[in-house]
């Protein structure tokens, strides 16, 4: 595990990965071979053993901070927030018009420049997209949000609004943001909070509009939609699975019985603190 030791540096949640040879020595990094994405974008292949850090968009906006992480010995992966828990999007150029209209998109970093910088160090770049927890879109577009029985916006225990996982417009919005990052050079898109709410007064929740499939099939349907749109761009797709679903089942997160046999690609699951990361592609 790679951990930042400098005082005052926060890596936004976690260090990622492991992978050491016998005797405790880190495996040397091989020069990366590129794989094609869109005609103007080159993507790096995923490392066999991930050794990386997660960086928030706020940290990425600080001058020279990304370069500090890229010089961590043995680092081969950097995960950067593309869209975070507060509904913010880290860049403006190429983002969907809805992200700009709602004020979600901010100039925290230039996605293309970040991708070039990270790739120049031979580092694999993952874009984290927080999906259904979205306090910006839920307020600006309440027709796309989860409501309560009295018609007001529903909030979780932290006071944050959520968008409606059944709403295909919400799917399109998040995947449009992911596609923008992919076209700008991110190698993998990792969807987080890709689930129904699990805290707050769940008994008050009302999901407006049509429910095209049962709750338990909604998240697999979203991941299928996302991979169908993102695979042609040359990126890999992964999802963070809520950790409680591994130990408490559908009572904790009714969408997750993730039904991995129905997902496009059944690749290994990696356990991380508080979550399970399920590589979909």
Spatial strand sequence of the major β-sheet:
1-4-5-6-8-10-12-11
Our count of helices gives 8
Spatial gap, N to C terminus: 24 Å
CATH architecture: Alpha-Beta Barrel
- Helix fraction bin: 10-25%
**CATH class descriptor name:** Alpha Beta
Main pleated-sheet profile? 8 strands, mixed
Any idea how many domains?
1
Silhouette: globular
CATH topology: TIM Barrel
Query: How much of the residues is beta strand, in percent?
Result: 15-25%
- Name the average pLDDT: 80
Rounded to an integer in angstroms, the radius of gyration calculated over CA atoms is 18 Å
Question: Which tags fit this structure?
Answer:
disordered N terminus; alpha/beta; 281 residues; TIM Barrel; 12 strands; two-stranded antiparallel sheet
Chain-wise SSE layout:
Layout: E1 15-17, E2 35-36, E3 42-43, E4 51-55, H1 57-60, H2 65-70, E5 77-83, H3 97-101, H4 111-120, E6 124-130, H5 137-140, E7 147-148, H6 168-183, E8 188-192, E9 205-206, H7 215-230, E10 236-242, H8 244-248, E11 269-272, E12 275-279
Parallel strand pairs: 4-5, 5-6, 6-8, 8-10
Antiparallel strand pairs: 1-4, 2-3, 7-9, 10-12, 11-12
Overview of the structural elements:
This protein has 281 residues and is an alpha/beta fold. It has one domain (33-279): TIM Barrel (Alpha-Beta Barrel). Helix content is 23%, strand content 18%. It has eight helices and twelve strands. The protein is globular. It starts with 14 loop residues before the first strand and ends with a strand. The relative contact order is 0.13. Mean pLDDT is 80; it is low at 1-14, 18-33 and 244-278.
């Amino acid at each position: 595990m790679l951990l930042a030791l400098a005082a005052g540096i926060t890596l936004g949640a976690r260090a990622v990965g492991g992978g050491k040879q016998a005797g405790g020595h880190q495996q040397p990094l091989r020069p990366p071979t590129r794989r094609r994405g869109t005609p103007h974008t080159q993507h790096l292949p995923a490392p066999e053993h991930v050794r990386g850090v997660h960086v928030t968009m706020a940290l990425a906006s600080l001058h020279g901070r990304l370069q500090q992480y890229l010089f961590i010995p043995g680092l081969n992966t950097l995960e950067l927030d593309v869209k975070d828990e507060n509904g913010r999007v880290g860049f403006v150029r190429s983002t969907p018009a809805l992200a700009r209209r709602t004020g979600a998109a901010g100039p925290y970093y230039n996605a293309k420049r970040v991708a070039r910088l990270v790739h120049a160090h031979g580092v694999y770049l993952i874009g984290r997209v927080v999906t259904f927890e979205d306090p910006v879109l839920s307020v600006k577009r309440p027709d796309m949000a989860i409501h309560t029985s009295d018609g007001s916006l529903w909030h979780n225990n932290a006071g944050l609004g959520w968008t409606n996982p059944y709403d295909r417009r919400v799917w399109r919005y998040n995947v449009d943001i992911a596609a923008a990052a992919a076209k700008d050079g991110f190698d993998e898109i990792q969807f987080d909070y890709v689930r129904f709410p699990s805290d707050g007064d769940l008994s008050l929740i009302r999901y407006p509009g049509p429910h095209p499939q049962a709750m338990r099939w909604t998240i697999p349907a979203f991941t299928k939609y996302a991979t169908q749109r993102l695979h042609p761009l040359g990126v890999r797709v992964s999802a963070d699975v809520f950790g409680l679903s591994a130990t408490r089942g559908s009572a904790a997160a009714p969408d997750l019985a993730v039904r991995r046999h129905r997902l496009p690609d059944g690749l290994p699951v990696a356990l991380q603190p508080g979550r399970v990361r399920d590589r979909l592609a």
